[in-house]
Write the structure tokens for this entry.
Amino acid sequence: MKAIKSISEIREKVKALKQEGKTIGFVPTMGALHEGHLSLFRLAQEHVDEVIASIYVNPKQFGPDEDFDEYPRQLKNDLAKCEMEGVSAVFAPNDNIMYPSKQYVRIELDELNKYMDGGSRPGFFEGILIVVNKLFNIIQPDVAVFGQKDIQQFCILQQMVKEFNHNVKLVMGPIKRANDGLALSSRNKYLDDQQRKMAPGLYRALRYTKKQISDGAKNINLLLDHQKRELEEKGFKIDYLNLFSFDKMAPVKDVTTGSKYILAGAVYLGETRLIDNLIIEIS
């Protein structure tokens, strides 16, 4: 399988598939593919006839002190994995293709990025909205699949699709985990052996907290503070660990019957930032 680098060529590929009456699924990635990405390809295949992937490390979603230069890039291996999974084509542009000149138009985001990753990484979701808008306009898929691990991204993109009238259905794939519970991520490669052994602690803290909330715990802040202290004692640096509303992704102190919440955390082990989340539905 060859990477398609030009917009015109990937559009011709999609056009040809659609002329055959095929429905198109799209899975955008930044490469360094792991089982989590592959599961999204498989999920897309359940909804459409053909799957297109993109591999592009988008500079617009990295802050000045983040890991853009270090982010793992392994295009040859990624293409082999895409081919094995039956992906029809891979769009792998460079920066000159995606941002060929000065960008005069920006996207602003209100409220939905105030907390969680948006609160910790200014400009992060604006950068994602720019590149996903471009990719949707280039590929024009029927279905696009994103992972639950980046749940705030999914919810924001869902709002973008609604407000910008994109003719695409979004599907959220479940988090894929290692045997010890760690959410799979391309950034897990940054962990040393000791950090890798510690890393599932975030998932264990989230699972414990979810059980307590589901069992009727009332003082959620006290429960979360206790888990933060335990993680810090084990060597984690807490970015955030909180219960958020599903619609606005804002912190909540109490839960109500019939509502849906996101229990989410972001932590550092050394320089490596890990994120994870669980969805809680109160019945």
